[in-house]
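User: What would this chain look like folded?
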Amino acid sequence: NIFTGRLSSAGDTATRVGERATWSVAPGAPGRVGLADGASAAIVVRPERLHLERLEGALSFDRPTMDAGALNRVDGVVGDVVYLGSTRKYVVELSDGSRALSRVQVGQRGDDLTPGTRVSTTWAIKHGVLVPDDAAPSGSGAGTLRGPTPAAADA
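Assistant: Here's the prediction, encoded as structure tokens.
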């Protein structure tokens, strides 16, 4: 899962990536990868680090919320579920048309979701890896999730 956008700092402890939607990154991460305010950046999150929870109410992509400053969040709808033995792979269709992949161990919370279920997709800030987004043309793809290719989604 790759969330892209432009980097912006909000003081010494908060740094965000995105324009339309924003996600927080760990303090000090921009300096470690040599990024400054305004740089194209991406947050990479492994599928097993995305947590899914049933969502009540309206979907929200415009402004992900933070839970005690430790989580990033984006909402969507489960589009596909693949049983992989001890895990299930969920393809979540986000409200902007992009996708996120999540893998959940059987027996854990969230392993019983079905296609069409509205979900909140969250990940801990510490599980997002900040990297330069060299693939993004200037001014495009900001604040979106670059979903997997169809071949990657089938893996």
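The CA atoms of residues 94 and 143 lie 12 Å apart. If you want, I can go into more detail on any region.
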